[in-house]
Design brief:
Layout: H1 2-13, H2 48-51, H3 78-85, H4 89-110, E1 112-115, E2 118-121, E3 127-129, H5 130-145, E4 148-153, E5 160-161, E6 170-178, E7 189-197, E8 204-205, E9 209-217, E10 221-227, E11 233-238, E12 244-250, E13 254-262, H6 271-282, E14 286-287, H7 293-303, E15 305-310, H8 322-335, E16 339-341, E17 351-352, E18 361-364, H9 366-377
Parallel strand pairs: 4-6, 13-14, 13-15
Antiparallel strand pairs: 1-2, 2-3, 4-5, 6-7, 7-9, 8-17, 9-10, 10-11, 11-12, 15-18, 16-18
Helix pairs in contact: 3-4, 4-5, 6-9
């Protein structure tokens, strides 16, 4: 049964990978004792696809004066895009391997029959929480990239040594399946990750990221990524043959009456947040809130407008983690031409002091973030034009 599952999945997503690679990859010895795969059966969907990167994906443009001279084009494959967007072979390798993991997670999410968070796949041979399986696949992808030094996930909030180099290597933090509690309702869910150079995930800021990305598992499967030194935020679509194709570039988040209000229970004892929500309703904004952070933030990038908020109050504390969720999505939104805020500053400027640090957040267009900051705190660091309302 297990072998038939692997072969079917390989035919669907990893053409050219033979069934002899269908056994699970063994977890690195360096992973801490608190992290165990004992409850996880073999998942088998990597094999040589992660060990051998096509030569074309490692070709790097010759760049003079550090300026990129080749423009990435709609229709490019992920590998073509990355070789044009960055000269860093290690980063190309890592992002390509993560793309392999996202592709496999998408298959697993779409073929899981779920009750709550306990899932059995369509072949009946895996009784796993799908978020734990996603967690395992991402750790394996980072191990076989050979360029990840440390990794840390929301499921395993401790640094895991992935065996990569410190010099020229990266550290990665990820939320394996944001929205896993709504998988059983068939809502869109996703993966979030941020990439930092070297071996540190604390004492750094979101602005120090060299790349950030999310995988979105909905009617379409997409891989949305941004590179620190390359303009725009870029969407890749998973095609039937298993390849990622560049389908959209976002460089500007404009104005538009679309809002996604998270943590509405905070309006009970945060009158300023209540005032902001009432403004959206009074001004006839369109409500587009799914209960999943990935699809709600992704729609701002795709629609190129809107506002996402998740605000705290005395009785409703912050739940969103700066390292695993807020900072990576902040880079994606800001590279797309939008803004982020914790009420007083960009979330990319917040120092990550510990792995579990949490914060409130808003993402959106400039005027929406001005309105958010003014309404909650009376002034905005971005203010430079006419009043945007709600603060009065």
């Amino acid at each position: 049964m297990e072998r038939s599952m692997a072969c079917c999945a390989n035919r669907a997503f990893l053409p050219g990978v033979s069934s002899q690679h269908s056994t699970a990859l063994v977890a690195p010895r360096s992973i801490s004792s608190s992290f165990t795969y004992k409850s996880l059966k073999s998942c088998s969907l990597f094999g040589e696809s992660l060990r051998q990167v096509p030569k074309s994906s490692l070709k790097v443009l010759k760049i003079k004066n550090t300026s990129l001279v080749t423009r990435c084009a709609i229709g490019d494959s992920l590998e073509e895009f990355l070789t044009k967007a960055t000269p860093d072979k290690g980063l190309i390798r890592l992002l390509t391997c993560m793309g392999e993991a996202l592709r496999t997670i998408s298959f697993k999410v779409k073929t899981a029959s779920c009750g709550g968070t306990a899932c059995i796949n369509s072949f009946g041979d895996e009784q796993l929480a799908v978020d734990l399986l996603a967690n395992k696949l991402l750790f394996e992808a980072l191990t076989y990239s050979h360029f990840c030094k440390y990794a840390c996930s929301e499921e395993v909030p401790e640094l895991q040594d992935m065996g990569g180099p410190v010099e020229g290597g990266f550290s990665v933090a990820f939320d394996p399946l944001d929205g896993s509690s709504i998988v059983d309702t068939n809502f869109t869910v996703g993966t979030i990750f941020g990439v930092w150079s070297g071996d540190k995930l604390t004492g750094v800021t979101g602005r120090d990221q060299v790349a950030a990305a999310m995988g979105i598992y909905g009617p379409r499967t997409t891989y949305v990524l941004a590179l620190k030194d390359f303009p725009g935020t870029h969407e890749f679509l998973l095609l039937d043959e298993g390849k990622w194709q560049h389908v959209k570039e976002t460089t500007e988040i404009g104005e538009g009456k679309l809002f996604s209000p998270g943590n509405l229970r905070a309006t009970f004892d945060n009158p300023d947040y209540d005032k902001l929500i009432n403004y959206y309703v009074k001004e006839k904004y369109t409500l587009r809130y799914t209960g999943g952070m990935v699809p709600d933030v992704n729609q701002i990038i795709v629609k190129e407008k809107g506002i996402f908020t998740n605000v705290t109050s005395p009785s409703s504390k912050a739940k969103l983690r700066l390292l695993f969720e807020v900072a990576p999505l902040g880079l994606l939104v800001e590279k797309a031409g939008g803004h982020s805020s914790d009420g007083r500053q960009s979330v990319l400027d917040k120092v990550i002091n510990n792995l579990d640090e949490r914060t409130q957040v808003a993402y959106g267009s400039k005027d929406e973030i001005i309105r958010f900051e003014e309404t909650l705190y009376g002034s905005s660091r971005l203010k430079g034009g006419v009043p945007v309302g709600a603060a009065a």
